[in-house]
Amino acid sequence: MDLTPFYEFAGEHVAVGIHAVDAKGKTVIYNSKMKEIEGFDFEELVDRSFLEMFRFEQQESTLLKVLQSGTPVLNAKQTYWNRKGQEITTINDTYPIFQNEELIGAIELSRDVTTLEKAVYQPLKKYEEPITFSTITAVSSSMKKVIETAEKAAKAKLPVLLIGESGTGKELIAESIHWAASSSGPFYTLFCHGTDLHLLDQLLLDMPNMTGGTIYCERIDLLSLHLQAHLLQIVEQQAGDSICFIASVGEDPVELIGSGKLLKELYYFFSAMTIPLEPLRKRKEDIFPFVTDYFSRHRMNFGSIVKGLDREVTRLFEDYDWPGNLKELELLLDEITSMLTTQDIVTMDLLPQYFKSKSKSSGRLGPEDFIVSRTKDLLPLEDYLFEAEMYYLQKAMDLYQGNVTKAANALGMSRQNLQYRLRKIKKK
Ligand SMILES: Nc1ncnc2c1ncn2[C@@H]1O[C@H](COP(=O)(O)OP(=O)(O)OP(=O)(O)O)[C@@H](O)[C@H]1O
């Protein structure tokens, strides 16, 4: 009996992301769960082969690494911001695949542990005391405005809708509203990412026992419309009681409603007060005060001597776009401080390699710019070809460890020609 249809069905419906490549690194399997994890839409996937050419992300490189070494890489945890700007934490196992002792490809199995990570890890890690408005870095005028409105919301005790990209501090604001409202009960977070009917029903069962407190529904736009309707029923039943309801969404709610991702009625319920949080790239004044606060907490909690950033790192932080906002900065600082020994100033060599290459390319074209779609303008051909050439030449130089003669030879061009092109890249 041919079992292929069974395996195909299982591959599409299993709750693990699967990405397999052949011996040349070309994708041969990319299942639905992987699309969901990486945030791709179908239309974009058609162009995936193009994308692969330009992607430097860890995801691919683990597969390629395994392809080169022939040995598995297991339990690799990574937190990143996917194509839709959603924060995702996965644990990946990547294996080489052999047939008759010949390496024919590699496969990556990716478990989405975002919700688990938030529920288990974050409460342990953060501020030791309840979050109050004064704990929050708010130097920019837009963050000051956020705090002002949140203070009003705490007094009014009306439902609140927080709007902002992942990592902008929505949960912190929700928690500080809770404490400022001097609510007697607990602060609960309902992580909508990965929530199912069963968990929502559990919430329904638990609620009658709550005599106060706050329920924060994080990213209601990540629930299916069916579950949003269910959530609406739950919150409406309790409305008017002493429970305070706060929710968050990742983008403009009007657009979300327009594109069928947010139930209008659920939006109406929460939008008694709305608080938009700007992405960090639009309020860069908050970057360094946050770093200073982080370091002082680190000195206090771990007795370290870390004081600040050197000039080069400061410039890099200023220029970078921070797609994951303050959360991304915080994770980066966690990584940097874990490597500190006797140094009190953070220098370039303490920055992880992936961050250096990401920040170098920030401002330049990213992989998504190469996707051809009806909703976006095409890139001028010249820019497209320039990026492609730059990518290819840099990869060739890496492969030959910077040896221009050997790289030129492999590329079938003269040494002078390659040097000329490399200079052109540097100037851009
Ligand atoms: N203004 C801020 N001041 C201090 N810390 C901040 C601020 N904004 C974000 N952070 C830090 O970034 C982390 C992420 O913030 P938070 O979880 O509130 O973001 P979020 O907007 O709720 O993200 P998501 O939509 O992914 O849930 C927090 O743990 C906090 O330490």
TrEMBL record:
<dbReference type="InterPro" id="IPR058031">
    <property type="entry name" value="AAA_lid_NorR"/>
</dbReference>
<feature type="domain" description="Sigma-54 factor interaction">
    <location>
        <begin position="136"/>
        <end position="338"/>
    </location>
</feature>
<keyword id="KW-0805">Transcription regulation</keyword>
<dbReference type="InterPro" id="IPR009057">
    <property type="entry name" value="Homeodomain-like_sf"/>
</dbReference>
<dbReference type="InterPro" id="IPR013656">
    <property type="entry name" value="PAS_4"/>
</dbReference>
<dbReference type="InterPro" id="IPR002078">
    <property type="entry name" value="Sigma_54_int"/>
</dbReference>
<dbReference type="InterPro" id="IPR025662">
    <property type="entry name" value="Sigma_54_int_dom_ATP-bd_1"/>
</dbReference>
<dbReference type="Pfam" id="PF08448">
    <property type="entry name" value="PAS_4"/>
</dbReference>
<dbReference type="GO" id="GO:0005524">
    <property type="term" value="F:ATP binding"/>
</dbReference>
<keyword id="KW-0067">ATP-binding</keyword>
<keyword id="KW-0547">Nucleotide-binding</keyword>
<dbReference type="GO" id="GO:0043565">
    <property type="term" value="F:sequence-specific DNA binding"/>
</dbReference>
<dbReference type="GO" id="GO:0006355">
    <property type="term" value="P:regulation of DNA-templated transcription"/>
</dbReference>
<dbReference type="InterPro" id="IPR000014">
    <property type="entry name" value="PAS"/>
</dbReference>
<keyword id="KW-0804">Transcription</keyword>
<protein>
    <submittedName>
        <fullName>Arginine utilization regulatory protein</fullName>
    </submittedName>
</protein>
<feature type="domain" description="PAS">
    <location>
        <begin position="12"/>
        <end position="68"/>
    </location>
</feature>
<dbReference type="InterPro" id="IPR002197">
    <property type="entry name" value="HTH_Fis"/>
</dbReference>
<dbReference type="Pfam" id="PF02954">
    <property type="entry name" value="HTH_8"/>
</dbReference>
<dbReference type="InterPro" id="IPR035965">
    <property type="entry name" value="PAS-like_dom_sf"/>
</dbReference>
<dbReference type="Pfam" id="PF14532">
    <property type="entry name" value="Sigma54_activ_2"/>
</dbReference>
<dbReference type="InterPro" id="IPR027417">
    <property type="entry name" value="P-loop_NTPase"/>
</dbReference>
<dbReference type="Pfam" id="PF25601">
    <property type="entry name" value="AAA_lid_14"/>
</dbReference>
